[in-house]
Every structure is written in C-alpha cells, then in structure tokens.
Amino acid sequence: MAELERLRADHLPALLVFELENREYFAASVPDRGDAFFAGFMSHHGELLERQAEGSVVLHVVLDEDGSILGRVNLFEVGEGTADLGYRIAERASGAGVATEFVGQVCSLAANDYGLVTLHASARTENVGSRIVLERTGFVPVGEVTLSGRPGIRYRRDLADLTRGA
Predict the structure, then answer these.
(1) What angle do CA 63, 2, 118 make, to 5 degrees?
(2) 1, 9, 23, 144: least CB-packed within 10 angstroms?
(3) Are 131 and 114 in contact (CB under 8 A)?
C-alpha cells in the first residue's frame, strides 16, 4: 500500500531514480526538465528542502511498499492562505488512481495541517489525465493559461469543505 510522506533529504536518491526512470514518460505531457536539472539535481533539491523549512513550499513523495517513489505532490508559492499544486506520478502507477488518491490527501493536508484555504493548479488542454484528476479532487476550471507555449486550463480548489468538522 502506497503512502504519502513529506520530502526529506534521505528521499533524494530515490527521487532522482524516479525522475530519470520516468523522464521520457513525463516529457510526453509536460516540458522536459532538461539535462541541467538532472546534473544539478541534489543541489536543486537541497535548495527546495531549505525553502520547505522556510515554509514557501511543501513537498511530498508517494512511496510504494518497497520504498521506491511512485510520485510526488507538491505545493509551491505557499502564502496568504493559498498555494499552487503540482504533481507527477510514475508511468507504472498511471491509471491506478494513485494521482487522485494522493492529490486528494494533499488537499486535505493543505486545509487541515497547512492552514491553506485555496489551491491553484494548471494542466495542458491535451493532458486529459491530469485534468480528470484535478476535477475528481474538487478543482474547477477558472480560466485559460499558456503552459510552455501550449494552451492550458487554470484550476482552483476552495478547501473549506475539507476542513475537519466542516
């Protein structure tokens, strides 16, 4: 059974494996991160962990039973009750409900543990799978956006209905 954890420094080697194993798969629906990203991976993620300690990002990994990483669900630009949500799930877990389950968990954490009231997310128009996950987890389309030169949809998720006792 998969579980969600906050990203820690000891996750970084497995996270790099996850990113490299799924690089081609991810590049089919989101812009490739480029060779420089992978060359500086440990340093970049060290900086992200510092930002997490400061509170401007909240980073999560989805761990499989064997400790390998199935995905990541992150909150960026955290502040003033809002954040941007981004996620990516391994090809081997695609279509199994993993994204929906863990995006939903992060929405609940955002409402109940992180003090957020609204989340935003974006997906390319042609990325139907991501759009379905967002809509299944309560995000609603609020406008159009351009993502890496391609048309996309901007979503919003009000979190009041997830607050414990709501």
Answers:
(1) 85
(2) 1
(3) no
User: Which tokens is 94 given?
Assistant: 């695609």
Residues comprising the chain, all counted: 166
* Distance (Å) of CA 78 to CA 4, 43, 156: 19, 21, 14
- Assigned architecture for domain 3-162: 3-Layer(aba) Sandwich (3.40)
Please state whether beta strands 118-124 and 69-79 pair in parallel, antiparallel, or not at all (unpaired): unpaired
> What is the SS3 assignment for 11?
helix
More confident site: 78 or 163: 78
Give me the pLDDT at residue 166, please.
59
Alpha-helical segments (H) within 41-165: 41-54, 98-112, 128-136
* Local confidence band at 119 (pLDDT 50, 70, 90 cut-offs): very high
Domain boundaries, the chain: 3-162
- The rounded distance, in Å, linking the Cα atoms of 139 and 118 is 10
Contacts of 86 (CB under 8 A, 6+ apart): 73, 74, 76, 121
Instruction: Output the average pLDDT for the chain.
Output: 95
Show the tokens assigned to 86. 């981004």
∠ CA 29-114-138 to the nearest 5 degrees?
50
